[in-house]
Structures are given as structure tokens and as C-alpha cells.
Amino acid sequence: MTPAQARRLAVEASHALAAAGQGDMVWGHAAVRDPDGRGIWIKAPGWGLEEVRDDRLQLVSYEAEVLIGDGTPHKECHIHLEVLRAHPQAHCSVHTHAESAIAFAALDVPLLPLSHEGALFGGEDVPRFRETGGLVSTPELGEKLATALGEAPAALMPKHGLVAAGSTAAAAVMHAVLLDSACAIQLRARAAGQAVGHSDAAEARAKRAQCWPGSQLEAGYRYLVRKAASTLAAGGSSSRPA
Ligand SMILES: [Zn+2]
Fold first, then answer.
1. How does residue 206 score in pLDDT terms, banded at 50, 70 and 90?
2. What distance in angstroms lies between residue 206's CA and the mean position of ligand 1's atoms?
């Protein structure tokens, strides 16, 4: 991968997250590891996910200094810097304030494999970062978040949002999208009654392999990228509906 390709992915991943409804005005971001080892490509503060363009990106060093681009970095750039530093196999990370993830995290109950999306965790509960519900604005908090995430595809950040990572931009974005969808489905089921019809651990593991190989994550991601492109071409916003 070249730096130009990493920049393109940082734009594309941001648009895909917006198309999935994970925008929260100008907050939340996707970051792509710089292939030359200089840091991460991430949007500059002040732009919504659907507004990200190549000239609105920054290259932020692992010391949180802007090497290319204008202004200061996002206060929460430490999320991505530390997640990608701690997980060399990951090339992209996502942090959003996805609404269903926040609402579900407030219940503090296990995430169940009620659906294909819920099987992403293979029958295990989703990890949670409990150190703070405030901004992850220091390297120390970023490190603790990276530890909480571990090797999982995504983690809840109660009172705040979610974090996700992947070996590709497609995987990282889809991990965030699938977690939020799984949370939304469980919230709906729970609102209607006691959710009892879910996969056991063996079925959940099998479904994770069946439903969410890299090719499926890529296919879902490409759909979101196309959806974002058509929305942008129509002059609309694809961030969270009112
Ligand atoms: Zn945040």
C-alpha cells in the first residue's frame, strides 16, 4: 500500500461510516495506518464523516503531532494511535458515537447472538472499556482502551460510543457497523420482552465463520461506499437521520 492509497481509504472509510448512520455531527473518526510508519491518516477536526476529503486529512504521528495537514488533531486521536500501536495486524481503526451502541451499553447486559450481526463475537460478550466515560484524550487512556479491545473486532465504550479495528478498512468499518446493528436488534427485542431465541456458543462460532469472512466484510463495505457515493452525488447528507 502507498500513502496515497491509505489516504483514499481514510476518506472512503469515513464516508462508509456516514452511510451506515454512524455520524454524530463532527465527532467520530476512522484512521488508517500510514504504510511508511509515520503515524495515522485521519480527518481533521471540524468535519463530519460525510464531509471528509483528501485535503481535509491529517497525517498524525504516534506522538500526536500533525505532520501533514492543517491545525491540531482530534483530541481523541489517541484512540487510534494506541489501538494501531498495540495491534500491528490492524491497519484501520474506527471510533464513533453510534447511538444503539451507547444505548445498549447503558443496560450493562451481555450482548447476545440474536442475529447474524450478533454472531460477530462468536458467542462471547463484547468487550467494554470502563476506565472512563469521558474523552480518550491521553496516550494512557488510549493504551487502556487498546488493552480492553484486545483481539476482539470491536468494543463498547459505555457512556460514550464504540471502538473497532481490522486488518483492512473494510473490516474495521464493518466491525463497527455490525456491533451497532447487533446492539439495535437486542434493544428492540428487549423492549418487546425477554430475548430467549439466540444462538448457542457453537452456532455463534459457526455463524461468525460463515457470515463474516473477509470477503463478506468487503462486500458489505463496498455497498456502504457505493451508498455514500450516490448520496453525495445527490447532494444529500448521509449522517444520522433526525
Ligand atoms: Zn468520542
1. very high
2. 33
Question: How many angstroms is it from 180 CA to the middle of ligand 1?
Answer: 15
The string of DSSP letters for 105-167 reads HHH--PPP--STGGGGGTTSPPPB--S-SS---SHHHHHHHHHHHTTSSEEEETTTEEEEEES
Q: How far is the CA of 159 from the centre of ligand 1 (A)?
A: 10
What pLDDT band is residue 26 in, cutting at 50, 70 and 90?
A: very high
Check residue 241 and give its pLDDT. 45
Which triple of cell numbers denotes residue 31? 484512521
Query: How far does the centroid of ligand 1 lie from the alpha carbon of residue 207, in Å?
Result: 30
> How is the chain split into domains, by residue range?
3-233
State the pLDDT at residue 195: 74
The pLDDT of 184-197, averaged and rounded, is 90
CA 118 to centroid of ligand 1, rounded, Å: 23
* 77-111 confidence digits (pLDDT tens): 999 999 999 999 999 999 999 999 999 999 999 99
Q: Which residues, in sequence order, are bridge partners of residue 21?
A: none
DSSP 99: H
84 CA → ligand 1 middle, Å: 17
Q: How many angstroms is it from 15 CA to the middle of ligand 1?
A: 17
Fold of the CATH domain 3-233: L-fuculose-1-phosphate Aldolase (3.40.225)
Q: How close is the Cα of 160 to the center of ligand 1, in Å? A: 6
Compute φ and ψ for 128, nearest 5 degrees: -130, 140
